[in-house]
Amino acid sequence: MATLSRMMKKAASSVIPLANRTPCRNYTSAIFTTPLKTSTAIRTVTSSSNLFRTTSIPANRHFSALAKKKPDSDDTLLRVIESEINDAEEEAGDFEVGEAPSEFPFKIVDNEGDETITLTRNYQGEEIKVTVYKPDLSGDYEEDEEEDQDNQEANQGGEEEEEEGVSQPVDMVVTVTKKDGPTLEFDVMVEADEITINNLAVKNPNVSDEDIAYEGPEFSSLDEELQEAFHTYLEIRGIKPSIANFLHDYMVKKEHKEYTLWLKNLKNFIAN
User: Which SUPFAM superfamilies does this chain map to (predicted)?
Assistant: First the structure.
């Protein structure tokens, strides 16, 4: 029995040191080698990231520079527009407008950017509104005006005769309204020596736009006495031949001013 006990103690003592040594050797090796590999991997990734950033920045800058560069044709267009603006501003002084005639009873409403002007006044409870359109400076009228000027230069009759020889028609729409009732609408052409009524209509504010209202016959087909009465009707309300030249000059100047503004808007659009 004593011999068997000594043999068991000897076997146990030889097993315990072996178990203690084996884990220490394995874990110690893993602890020291793993951090070295991780550190090397981090340096490699960081180095690759830095290389990517270094090569990508110049590419972005190059693309941005190309995007901001305008075509040569745009620069040429801008130069032409600027030249037109300079010419228009130099010519602005050629468009002079004299004082309104003493019998001109209207207030002028001139909004920048609008093609027309509006004349307004109140007359014995009536609201009178006149929309004046820009004159047509092309076609037969322009040729007739040149012929009139040639005839005036040949004629030495003085300034008064020269003014009477120039015809400067102005197209307008005249509306006369009484409170909330219907409106008389005249399509009119005013010249220095006469007024021409092209059309006359009665507008009812209570009639829907979808309804087609009867607007009356052609004005020229009316009895001559009735036509003359309507001419007098308009003259009493301020639509007279004496305002033709003033309005013509005013609208010619406005046309030039609006053209200059239009050119400047074009320039701003192309430049930006």
Answer: Mitochondrial glycoprotein MAM33-like
